[in-house]
């Protein structure tokens, strides 16, 4: 290439070709690199062989003697030394973790629970065999069981019911009333019964829902001397007359008590 080379001379051509002048001929071959480290740096600009004066780890160049942690962390510490990477990790004692987030960087799993022939992972919830009313949980190798919580009921004790397979009591609807209680003595009238509570002009009925409905009777027919029949609400103007405490029938004549010369007659009008 226009340059005179002495016999036995050696040089490097671009493209990492190693050449030598032997007996008037130029002999070239690819540069052979002997790399004595595990993580060498790429060849420098214009160079052909990797360098062990630093380290290349996960695509990142590390200087000689640099201490670093890998990208996945886990408390591992690495050292670049003569192109080689040496890493150390903390020694974790066997057994369960002291907490869910240990401060010593040990990656461990909480202890499992062995209970009645079954193995459960930490935090697993399960029910006892055939008992859906009891809930258990595995906590750090120990099983804790408790009864299922039941809601508070607002019904009286005699209306509470525990059905087959149920864990908690439920409220039952009260039975349909069979009659009406009308006083403090426990007197009960059957549904549909009509009675007078003491006033002949008032009638009450026992309704289907157990309530009592009462209504008064209005007397529309009036006359000056009606007959009042015991137990009857309205006075009777058609049967006769009541005069001075005596009862006279229709068309009956009688002398006046106040004046014997006066004759009176009972007329229905």
TrEMBL record:
Its main location: secreted. The keyword Phosphoprotein does not apply. Residues 1-53, 53-114, 111-172, 178-238 form the VWFC domain. GO terms for biological process: cellular response to virus. It comes from the Eukaryota. SMART domains: VWC, VWC_out. It holds the Pfam family VWC2L_2nd. One of its GO terms (cellular component) is cytoplasm. It is found in: Secreted. This is VWCE protein. It comes from Galbula dea.
């Amino acid at each position: 290439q226009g340059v005179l080379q002495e016999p036995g001379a050696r040089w490097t051509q671009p493209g990492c070709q190693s050449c030598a002048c032997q007996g008037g001929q130029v002999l070239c071959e690819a540069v052979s690199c002997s790399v004595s480290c595990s993580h060498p740096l790429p060849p420098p600009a214009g160079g052909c062989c990797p360098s062990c004066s630093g380290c290349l780890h996960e695509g990142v160049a590390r200087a000689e003697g640099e201490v670093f942690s890998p990208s996945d962390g886990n408390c591992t510490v690495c050292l670049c030394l003569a192109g080689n990477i040496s890493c150390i990790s903390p020694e974790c004692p066997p057994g369960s973790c002291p907490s869910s987030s240990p401060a010593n960087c040990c990656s461990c799993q909480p202890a499992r629970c062995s209970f009645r022939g079954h193995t459960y992972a930490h935090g697993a919830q399960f029910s006892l065999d055939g008992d859906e009313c009891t809930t258990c949980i595995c906590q750090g190798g120990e099983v804790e069981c408790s009864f299922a919580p039941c809601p508070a009921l607002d019904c009286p004790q005699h209306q509470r019911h525990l059905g087959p397979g149920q864990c908690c009591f439920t409220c039952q609807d009260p039975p349909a009333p069979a009659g009406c209680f009308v006083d403090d003595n426990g007197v009960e009238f059957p549904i549909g019964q009509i009675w007078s509570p003491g006033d002949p002009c008032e009638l009450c009925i026992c309704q289907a829902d157990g309530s009592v409905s009462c209504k008064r009777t209005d007397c529309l027919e009036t006359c000056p001397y009606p007959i009042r029949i015991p137990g009857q609400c309205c006075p009777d103007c058609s049967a006769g007359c009541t005069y001075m405490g005596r009862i006279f029938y229709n068309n009956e004549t009688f002398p006046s008590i106040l004046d014997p010369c006066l004759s009176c007659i009972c007329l229905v009008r």
